[in-house]
Amino acid sequence: MKKYALILAAGKGTRMRTELPKCAFPILKKPMIEYIIENIEKSVIDETIVVVGHKKEVMEDILKDRVKYAVQEEQLGTGHAVSSAASLLENEEGITFILPGDMPLMEYPVMDKIISSHLEMGNDLTVVTMLMDYPKGYGRIIRDEYGVVNGIVEELDCNESQKLIKEVNSSVYVVDNKALFETIKKIRRNERKGEYYLTDIVSLMHQTHKVNTFLVRDPQITMGVNDLYGVGIAEKYLRDTINKGHMLGGVSIVNPETVTIGHNVIIEPGAWIYPNTTLMGNTIIKAGAVIGPNTEVLNSTIESYAEIRHSIVLDSIVGERTTVGPFAHLRRNAIIGKDNRIGNFVEVKASTTGDHTKAAHLIYIGDAEVGSNVNFGCGSVTVNYDGVKKHKTIIGDDVFIGCNVNLVAPIKVSDNVFIAAGSTVTQDIPKGAMAIARNKQINKEDYSKNLIKPKPKPE
Ligand code: UD1
Ligand code: CA
């Protein structure tokens, strides 16, 4: 039996109040619809059709040719969305697994379970339901006196007693194709909302077909994201799930509700993550590394026993046992060696350093190749930009750079060089030299009284 998935993702998502169509909106930086497609690709489904409409090019750009598309030109409701896939599905034997595109948390094992239950029970229609303490916003499941489901009533159309029903429609269905497309034609437009409700297939099928429900145990996985508050709730659920996985894998996370870790981040057991830390993209944190508090790491590798505190690290590599921060910024290809110290208010961009190099306070290192055992004095700067072009600084091993030194690039500082504090260096420095490039000091005897009046001393 061929198994199709039909995902309803044509809606604008008015309640989101965002520019992006709802199903394209990111949760932990990944579009909602991608979660669904990734899981469907792992499930027993053979073929997937996504109903697109509002800003369909955005949706198609995300999913490309991973799925087939049906276009719903005008969004006249979930029932109408299904009928826009009729030309692709109505003549096919098989079953269709219908999912809303705003339900990112259901994983494929649950999908497979729902489908096999549908087949084992011999249902024509299975409605996936959940129990909600606060069912507001969801369609309520209506049952007859024998407990058999015979309808779904949307919140807007509920009377007071129906509003109290806690079993709600998840908007996930498994249905026989032929029965679906026969029934969908019979749906009448809801007068209050002016839409064709897919939920009406239940009342239309329950007398002529075998209609059943499948109750999911964890209502969180079937939550529909309708607004930015819903995005927050889904994100919290994912954050907890991801953090739990890392903690069970041997990573210490302190105050985990403040720590956000992306899907592709790899953390070795024995690493520590402190509060208010975000690790995203293709980041790798090796054993023994300590990250945070208050740190952001994106697409970077942090080697064993390195420490990053109160800092930002983007597209960079931090070597073993190196300490970064507080308040440092490594960005775009900062490749820092082992046992370095990158301290307060230090920025490193597109540069490499050897081992045991220190840049402890108030330093900018840009477009530089720096050796081992280099000491950057407080306030030293690689002057890499002449207003038009960026230029390179090369610094050898065992170099001492005094405080407030400007290295005007392009420039080469060889091994074993000592540069006096306050120098503005514009020429290459040969191996073993000491460079001093500043005006000689003049002391004018007895002159300061012309410039500052001594303050009267208190009696
Ligand atoms: C829907 C269900 C409700 C259920 C809830 C679960 C209906 C009438 N109501 O309500 O019973 O409890 O989901 O989350 O089905 N869409 C289209 N085209 C349209 C309208 C919607 O493709 O014309 C898509 C949307 O993009 C969305 C999905 O269908 O992904 C659900 O639509 P939404 O407006 O969120 O329905 P709810 O009001 O949440
Ligand atoms: Ca919804």
Distance between the termini: 102 Å
The parts where pLDDT drops under 50 for at least 5 residues are: none
Bound molecules: uridine-diphosphate-N-acetylglucosamine, calcium ion
> Helical content, roughly?
10-25%
Question: What is shown here, in short?
Answer:
18% of the residues lie in helices and 31% in strands. It contains 9 helices and 37 strands. Strand 2 and strand 3 form a beta hairpin.
Plain-language structure description:
With 459 residues, the protein is α/β, with parallel strands linked by helices. It is 18% helix and 31% strand. The chain has nine helices and 37 strands. The chain has a 20-stranded parallel sheet that branches. The chain has a seven-stranded mixed sheet with strand order 5-4-1-6-10-7-11. Helix 2 links the parallel strand 4 (47-52) and strand 5. The longest helix has 21 residues, at 228-248. It is elongated, with a radius of gyration of 32 Å. Calcium ion is lined by residues 100, 102, 224, 226. Keywords: Acyltransferase, Cell shape, Cell wall biogenesis/degradation, Cytoplasm, Magnesium, Metal-binding, Multifunctional enzyme, Nucleotidyltransferase, Peptidoglycan synthesis, Repeat, Transferase. Homotrimer.
Topology readout:
Layout: E1 3-8, E2 26-27, E3 30-31, H1 32-42, E4 47-52, H2 56-63, E5 68-71, H3 78-83, H4 86-89, E6 95-100, H5 108-121, E7 125-131, E8 140-143, E9 149-153, H6 160-163, E10 167-176, H7 177-184, H8 200-205, E11 211-215, H9 228-248, E12 252-253, E13 260-261, E14 266-267, E15 272-273, E16 277-280, E17 284-285, E18 290-291, E19 295-298, E20 301-302, E21 307-308, E22 312-314, E23 317-318, E24 323-324, E25 329-336, E26 341-352, E27 358-366, E28 368-370, E29 375-376, E30 381-383, E31 393-395, E32 400-401, E33 406-408, E34 411-413, E35 418-419, E36 424-425, E37 434-435
Parallel strand pairs: 1-4, 1-6, 4-5, 7-11, 12-15, 13-16, 14-17, 15-18, 16-19, 17-20, 18-21, 19-22, 20-23, 21-24, 22-25, 23-25, 24-26, 25-26, 26-27, 27-29, 28-31, 29-32, 30-33, 31-34, 32-35, 33-36, 35-37
Antiparallel strand pairs: 2-3, 6-10, 7-10, 8-9
Bound molecules: uridine-diphosphate-N-acetylglucosamine (UD1) and calcium ion.
